[in-house]
Write a structure and sequence with these properties.
The structure is a homodimer. Helix content of chain A is 49%, strand content 18%. By secondary structure, the first copy, chain A, is α/β, with parallel strands linked by helices. Chain A has two domains: 7-178, 3-Layer(aba) Sandwich (Rossmann fold); 204-372, Dehydroquinate synthase-like, alpha domain. In chain A, the strands form three sheets. In chain A, strands 1-2-9-6-5-3-4 form a seven-stranded mixed β-sheet, sandwiched between helices. In chain A, strands 7-8 form a two-stranded antiparallel ribbon. The first copy, chain A, has a two-stranded antiparallel sheet with strand order 10-11. In chain A, helix 6 packs parallel to helix 10, helix 9 (252-261) crosses helix 12 (322-331) and helix 10 (270-287) packs antiparallel against helix 11 (293-305). Chain A binds chain B through residues 40, 84, 88, 91-92, 95-96, 100-102, 119, 122-127, 148, 150, 153-156, 158-163, 240, 333, 335-337, and chain B through 40, 84, 88, 91-92, 95-96, 100-102, 119, 122-127, 148, 150, 153-156, 158-163, 240, 333, 335-337. Chains A, B: Keywords: Amino-acid biosynthesis, Aromatic amino acid biosynthesis, Cobalt, Cytoplasm, Lyase, Metal-binding, NAD, Nucleotide-binding, Zinc.
Chain lengths: 373, 373
């Protein structure tokens, strides 16, 4: 098989800089890419049972061909794997595999595997090298870029983790052919987000070209590359999320609360929560006279066109009341000293960080939306 | 109570720089020091049951007086507390205390509490601020400085952790008055180490003045300050231990193997392993014709004078054979790609990093020493 040369997106983080390669066939080329960049390193491959079945033979053959030693560390699929007990098991498997400090941990999977493996890489031997081979659209455009890793605890999601940058990201867009339509759409919500944050031309391009992304045309590589470039630029400005990086949370404060309210279950996957959250963020911004109601309608129309949910009424099984949703919002780790920080917008592609959003206004807005359900 | 002004030792690490304050009375002054440097921060105090009884009331009163909110997180005493399960418990207690990202974790304790609390601070909310209030001599001159944090697993000691620099270290030398003589001596081994690495004048000063350090005269603050300065200088050159920082392992490769061989028990505490290890490092260096046998004799004489063990024969309960000790040495995480790295010396105060030490020479040397037991 031959493929078009991958697109390279550099992430500029000083001595932690790295490249994201985007293209078809990168799974099979992983051994050569790693050998040329990290000669002599051995690899612990962290993956889940489903992905091991689908992709581990190809990856193992690629590493073997490049003379790279490897040990598999296979975890169960699903968000519940991002737990302390699986974290401990993965870290200990890496140590038991006798990997050394210069060796590397490779995450073959979506956001769950990437977050778990990255956190394990951050702490095994106080920090090992890390390669992401994201297998979902969500992971390719979001979680594999930027170095956030972590696990969940009963106290909340992603409250435990580390900033640990990968040394290389291999985004094989061909792997996305095997995703379910629902999972592909959920990842697409994050693609649309980059347009909504600060790139109105990209959002307009998506409105025209989204079918090519879903169908696996060259639009897909372009959309992944634009998304990664957008995220890389924000991360380069604010690696540890003390400022601008918060923009990436557009739609996420509402979205996380909805995910929590539905028990992080199949009732609402992350990207679906973000889709509804982005519509709510635009509508709430319009309510605060920051943008026009037309902006919210335009966002809703596009997300609905690709098949994403855009309203609270589309969440199966009912929702708690506004007070409970507010409590879930307040529990979000982006709370700083008791004030609510939201990402609001002045229009499509004009998002901004709003500190000191009045909680009463948010509560009233949510109560109204819940009544419409 | 009034005390002499504390000695300040700055640790220069760019935007992670911080001060070590050294003096009597700093426990009672902790609230004021923290309030002036980190206004509005709340504090999770991690400590063990014994230290909570001894020191928590004074610390809590000091924080109260400064208007600083605090929650205690009390763990059992002893090395076995540096485990995954206690790590999880401490992290979750910090989250349950609703501490935010700008709040801080304070370690009130020795190396165990500092390593555990520091690792928890590194990962709770992906990194919180961290203050060390070391209560043992070992912690004041070694583990509280430099940002190494971590826990043990069945695979080995300190193989899991993070580099997470404190924002402030408060070394209250008055707290050392309550240490057992054995614990004080064990910490002293690390003080002597700084002389042996690269400061022969300090080692000569210790030979003359060690009684004042043990007795609690002003020699104590001086020795702690010289030790912290020495460690800070090495850490500033090589924060992540890719080079020079390995010098701090003088005596530790042998020492760790002996600790492992005795099950990390009361048979041999860390500083005692280091004392014997430093004598072995000098003797082995003499065997390799790097220094004179007189250097080893001088080191041994001083460490024996303060009451530290200096020979394998002083370890109660017997030792495994040389092959087993070599296996324990090879398991040490400072192994890089199969070659042995040792800290050897050309004389008192002239230690250096020796890569590619022939394992056979070490094995033969150990076998001989074991026969003498």
């Amino acid at each position: 098989m031959t493929f078009a040369a991958p697109i390279t997106v550099p992430v500029a983080l000083g001595d932690r800089s790295y490249d994201i390669l985007i293209g078809r066939g990168l799974l099979a080329a992983a051994g050569a890419e790693i050998a040329s960049r990290m000669p002599k390193a051995r690899v612990a491959i962290v993956t889940d049972e489903n992905l091991a079945r689908l992709h581990l033979p190809t990856l193992a053959a690629s590493l073997d061909a490049a003379g790279i030693g490897h040990v598999p560390v296979v975890v169960p699929p699903g968000e519940s794997t991002k737990s302390f007990s699986h974290f401990e098991a993965v870290v200990r498997a890496i140590l038991a595999g006798r990997l050394e400090r210069g060796d590397l941990v490779l995450a073959l999977g979506g956001g769950v595997v990437g977050d778990l493996a990255g956190f394990a890489a951050a702490v095994a031997r106080r920090g090992m090298r890390f390669v992401q081979l994201p297998t979902s659209l969500l992971a390719q455009v979001d979680s594999s870029v930027g170095g956030k890793t972590g696990i969940n605890t009963p106290e909340g999601k992603n409250l435990v983790g580390a900033f640990h940058q990968p040394d290389l990201v291999l985004a094989d867009t061909g792997l996305l052919d095997t995703l379910s339509p629902r999972e592909f759409r959920a990842g697409y919500a994050e693609v649309a987000k980059y347009g909504l944050i600060d790139d109105p031309a990209f959002f307009a391009w998506l409105e025209e070209n989204w079918r090519g992304i879903f169908a696996g045309g060259p639009e897909r590589e372009h959309a992944v590359a634009v998304s990664c470039r957008a995220k890389a630029a924000v991360v380069a400005r604010d690696e540890k999320e003390t400022g601008d990086r918060a923009l990436l949370n557009l739609g996420h404060t509402f979205g996380h609360a909805l995910e929590a309210a539905t028990g992080y279950s199949d009732r609402l996957v992350h990207g679906e929560g973000v889709a509804i959250g982005m519509v709510l963020a635009h509508d709430f911004s319009a309510r605060m006279n920051l943008c026009s109601p037309d902006d919210g309608r335009r966002v809703k129309a596009h997300l609905a066109a690709v098949g994403l949910p855009t309203t609270l009424g589309e969440i199966a099984g009912g929702l708690p009341d506004a007070d409970r949703l507010m409590a879930l919002i307040a529990q979000d780790k982006k709370v700083t000293r008791g004030t609510l920080t939201f990402i609001l917008t002045r229009g499509v592609g004009e998002a901004f960080i709003a500190r000191d959003v009045p909680p009463e206004a948010v509560r009233g807005f949510l109560a109204e939306r819940l009544e419409e359900v």
